[in-house]
Amino acid sequence: MTSLRAATCCAALMAGAAFAQPAAAQTSLTVAWYGGNWGEAFRACVAEPFTKATGIKVVPEIGTSTVTLAKLQQQKAAPTIDVAWMDGGISELAQAAGVTGAIDPQAVPNLAKVSPEAVYKADGAVFAVGTGYYSLGLTYNTQKVKTPPTSWNDLWNPEFAGAVTIPSPANSSGVPFILFLNKIWGNPANDLSKTFAKLKTLDTALYFDSSGAASNAYQSGEAIIGAHFSVGAWDLADKGLPIGFAVPKEGVWATDARLHLVKGTPRAAEAARFIDTALTPQASACLAEKLYLGPSVQGVSVAPDIERKLPWGVGGSVRNLQLFNWADINRDRGAITDAWNRELARQ
Amino acid sequence: MTAALTGDPATVPAAAPPTALRRALPLLAAPVAFFVAFFAVPMVVVLSSSLMAGGAPSLANYARVLLDQYHWDVLAVTFRIAALTTLAVTLLGYPLAYYLVRVVSSNALRRGCVILLLLPLFTSNIVRSFGWMILLGRNGLVNDTLVGIGLLERPIRFLGTETGIVIGLVYILLPFIVLAVGNALATVDPTLEEASADLGSSPFTTFWTVTFPLCLPGLIAGVIMVFTLAASAYVTPALLSGGKITVFPMLIFQQYSTVFDVHYGGALSITLLVFTLVLVALAGRIGNGGGNRS
């Protein structure tokens, strides 16, 4: 039964690859993406142009990356989601869970325009493609912090005591941020004890576990300096709050929002076409304008005011981002979370 | 209902006639199906995953939880916060319930008060906890006021302290104890109190020897509800702790949502459940004692 279904799926995939044409104007495509301004941007930049070009309706399935992965695992036998956006980290877990299908470069010609760093392969097949980078940089209150910070070590400035925030391991950036600090401080990769000892001396207001909690803390003045996602920090600044975002000299840790073709979807050809639409320079530029995502498509140019808000800062590029190997992070996740609980999350 | 909660054997029918039982079965089918699907099955899934390690049945996850001082420390923090919350809620809720039932004479006013008391329950826990984050913050209303009227020189830290978590939980759980105690108070026969007064007892002695023992089962039911809800609360501690205090439910959430270790997470869940049940059973015994005294 399962093998029969798998065979049918393979046949469908191959057929899809051979005739990459919209099957019928009436079909609809279910795409999993995130809520809030992210979902809005994906709809405006990718889904609407796709529907305009193909006549295929896009049905959004809203959820965070983790929730989407859980849904994909439940519907493994008969998927109803055709395409899914998931963040770096969860993307690798999805691949390991066997819910991602291969993205065929023949069916997705725009894949050739994507920077090689954003094309993720396992066993020789492409399982995910990045649609834009975001980073975790230094975020600060421009009224309370007079000199813009230039280094992560500025967080230890006694002036900011009790008003600093950094992510907790419950946040997707929490564990990689610790590994990032460990790296920039030149501590040995296999021994985090010095990094934890230094973090213990940081006088924080809170460790945030959701991006919303971080935004809330900066907004209320609970935190005046710390780490935050580029997307969230610029969103606050655009709302007129005195918030600045800086890329310190040590660099920033970054990851990306990636597209996946769901394994076994009966609408593989349409799904491939959708992914192709997301990888056009227009879609990439549109996501940069709306979310300040660093384009993964090569040669995309954006207005100067947008460019300074990209995750790598002024004059940077994807090469300035510290992109960690998520396989390593996921392997150590349990141990690092445990160490964090014992060292920092108690009085 | 309160007797059933505290397990009072005297009020539970020992053996219902078979025909009555047969007639009740179709009525019971829906709640039983619901209970099985949404409580028993998930519970069995959690329990069985907690008993697996490395693909084989094993108690290793429980050893990892119970043989580590860290987990006992977190458990102590969790139950300390729950106990403090229960104490504060009782001290605030009992007089409030007494006032509503015995002192407020107008029915309309009483109804208005109960609506005010229940109104916050219509808002999501997350929104209410975010509200407290803003109120209790360094530049929040509470600190601004205390500094403004000169009671404090500089803001005190509420967020990231056990006090902050307790404040948030007390606010959320207060209605439960008021309703439980209020219900019990309303059913106390006033003639018993009059008899006590006629026999020369002072109002305090009457309250302490007649009213209070009669309401004790209601109070115990409320205390149990509040304690279990406080011990298992996730959202309020997670937001108000600022990640600087860990309670058991936060450890469980971490394992399920970010570490994806359902085996260890399952063992943590069952551990919290067992300890809470033990404490609740102890409270139930006290409740029984109080009931018998009457």
Written overview of the protein:
The complex is a heterodimer of chains A (347) and B (294). Chain A is of the alpha/beta class and 347 residues long. Chain A contains 12 helices and 11 strands. In chain A, strands 1, 2, 3, 4, 5, 6, 7, 8, 9, 10 and 11 form an 11-stranded mixed β-sheet that branches. Chain A is globular, with a radius of gyration of 21 Å. By secondary structure, chain B is mainly alpha-helical. Chain B has one domain (2-15, 68-293): MetI-like (MetI-like fold, Orthogonal Bundle). Chain B is built from 13 helices and 2 strands; from the N terminus they run ααββααααααααααα. Chain B has helices at residues 2-5, 18-50, 60-66, 69-103, 107-118, 125-136, 141-148, 162-186, 190-198, 203-231, 235-240, 248-259, 262-293; strands at 52-53, 56-57. In chain B, strands 1-2 form a two-stranded antiparallel sheet. In chain B, helix 9 packs antiparallel against helix 10 (203-231). Chains A and B meet through strand 7, helix 7 and helix 12 of A and helix 4, helix 6 and helix 12 of B.
Quick take:
Chain A has 347 residues and is of the alpha/beta class. Chain A contains twelve helices and eleven strands. In chain A, helix 2 links the parallel strand 1 (28-33) and strand 2 (57-62).
Secondary-structure map:
The complex is a heterodimer of chains A (347) and B (294).
Chain A: H1 2-18, E1 28-33, H2 36-54, E2 57-62, H3 65-74, E3 83-87, H4 90-96, E4 119-122, E5 125-141, E6 164-167, H5 174-184, H6 193-200, E7 204-208, H7 211-220, E8 225-229, H8 230-238, E9 243-246, E10 252-261, H9 268-278, H10 281-291, H11 304-307, E11 321-322, H12 326-343
Helix pairs in contact in A: 1-9, 2-9, 2-10, 3-4, 5-12
Chain B: H1 2-5, H2 18-50, E1 52-53, E2 56-57, H3 60-66, H4 69-103, H5 107-118, H6 125-136, H7 141-148, H8 162-186, H9 190-198, H10 203-231, H11 235-240, H12 248-259, H13 262-293
Antiparallel strand pairs in B: 1-2
